[in-house]
Design goal:
Elements lengths: L1 E6 H4 L16 H4 L8 E6 L6 H10 L7 E5 L5 H10 L4 E7 H5 L5 H9 L7 E5 L10 H14 L4 E5 L11 H6 L4 E3 L16 H14 L1
Parallel strand pairs: 1-2, 2-3, 3-4, 4-5, 5-6, 6-7
Helix pairs in contact: 3-4, 6-7
Amino acid sequence: MVGVMMSYKTLNGIPTKWTTAFPPKEIIKDIFISHPLAFNTLHYADYDGIKVAENIEFAASLGGPNMHALQLDMIWPDPKIIASFRNRYPWIQVIVQGNSDAMDLVGNNPVAFTKRLLEYGDAIDYVLLDMSMGRGLELKAKAILPFARAIARYLPEVGIAVAGGLGPDTLRLLRPLLEEFPNLSIDAQSKLRPSGNALDPIDWRMAELYLQRAFSLF
């Protein structure tokens, strides 16, 4: 995945601390180049759920012809809205973020969590289990495993991804998950910077090491 971040505020020109960390919306289509190995994904963050239908369509329109997926960094967006979006844009895969807030709303119960996912039907392609939400909190495999198992049982056609403080020096955190889910997808953000702060620029040497070491795990 080549992931580009956007939020409700950066989409709509509202000042935010992320303005200098996220690329201007006008150049996203130029970042998403055509490449046989690329999975170009726009990450749209809106934890308040403001005008979701209108804004995800606006966001998708900025991705250009080489955008492959839209990741919804949100808290249980309306399944009807997501189904409608997927019907209008069947070539764009949809990734739902199962973040700590979404888990709290179902009592941190993996079965209840998966039942909520079932409401999306075939409108979603992946679920990202992410208790860190860009804060660099280390992934806790024992806490994630029950959710991954429930998804694999009830939604076997949906891909599973995980995030949480992953970087070149923390990939060991994945081992308990990889024992059961060798096709797991992984996501890194803040730990690709020496500071561990997602507001700082990516250190491309760290990103290179992350990829090299991740390849060795898989």
